[in-house]
Structure formats: C-alpha cells, structure tokens
Amino acid sequence: MPAAPVHRYALGLGSNRPVRGGESPEALVKRICGLLDERPFRLVACSPIIRTAPVGPSLRRYANAAAIVETPLPPPEMLRRLKQIERAYGRRRGQRWGARPIDLDILLWDGGPWADGALVVPHRLLRERDFVLRPLARVAPGWRDPMSGFTIRHLLARLQKPCTKAKAS
C-alpha cells in the first residue's frame, strides 16, 4: 500500500489573551509551534513572533507568527486538528475578532486553491493583512499565492507600498 502523500501548509498563529496561570500570548504561540512538530505534523519552520495592534473590537495586542508544517492530512482533516488544538487551549466560539487565547489559520497549502463549506484556502484575507504576511515572509518568502500568482514577499511589498494619488492640475 503506498504511503499517503505529504502536504505542506502555511499556518497563521495568533494570540492576545493570557492562559494557564498567566502564560503570555508570546509563550503560547511558542508552545503551539512546538505542538506542530508532533505527529501527525512536522514543523519545517516557525517565524519570529511579532506584536501587532488588534483588529476589530479587541483591545489587546496580538502575538502573531507563521509556521510551515508538513503532514499527510488533507485540508478538512488539518482544519479539524487545528480546531482541536484551539479548543484544548481555551478557544471558544464567540465574538468575531474578540480576545482569544489562540487562533490557528490555514493560510496556504501546496495543493493550490481549496474550498468547501468550512474552509477556503488560500485564506480569504491573506493578501490584506500585514500581520499575516510579515511573519509568513520570514518562513516562506517565495511561496506563490495561487490566486494572484505573486510570491509572499511580493504581496507584502505591495501591501506596504505607500498609496500615491495623482495630483490634480
């Protein structure tokens, strides 16, 4: 029987609420990177953690990172496993963009676009979020977004480029 193919995923990790007796968001993100190096995962790379302003109603700053992981899991099973990790570390369904101990997102996978009722890959907001692209560019600068064809490095540069307005004469 042939071995299951190994897929490569780019994941976004974020935390903005302390857990477990005050464990900081940064410490939790590091802990999760460690979990992503246990079966059925193999951690290829984890970016440095960056601190960013909150999106939406949350008032707490985020600790954000990106990880590259290999696993034989297809996208729906990968999503299920990531949701299990989130629940194990106190993530509960609630207010969108509210404070959360951990947020794990599938940003990209080596199989190209994927869409079903529960998951869309690449992540819908990948191209618009500096706090996702900055850490992802540290671990996968040459990975191409299958929708735009641009590399992560290029997407980040486009996002950070100052807008120029044509001057009226």
Report what the structure shows:
The chain is built from 4 helices and 7 strands; from the N terminus they run βαβββαβββαα. The strands form 2 sheets. Strands 1, 2, 3, 4 and 5 form a 5-stranded antiparallel beta sheet that branches. By secondary structure, it is of the alpha+beta class. The N and C termini lie far apart (71 Å).
Supply the key terms.
single chain, 169 residues, alpha+beta, five-stranded antiparallel sheet, two-stranded antiparallel ribbon, 26% helix, 22% strand, globular, disordered C terminus
Fold topology:
Elements: E1 7-15, H1 25-35, E2 42-46, E3 50-52, E4 62-71, H2 75-88, E5 103-109, E6 114-115, E7 120-121, H3 130-139, H4 152-160
Antiparallel strand pairs: 1-4, 1-5, 2-4, 3-4, 6-7
Helix pairs in contact: 3-4
Summarize the structure.
The protein has 169 residues and is of the alpha+beta class. The chain contains four helices and seven strands; from the N terminus they run βαβββαβββαα.
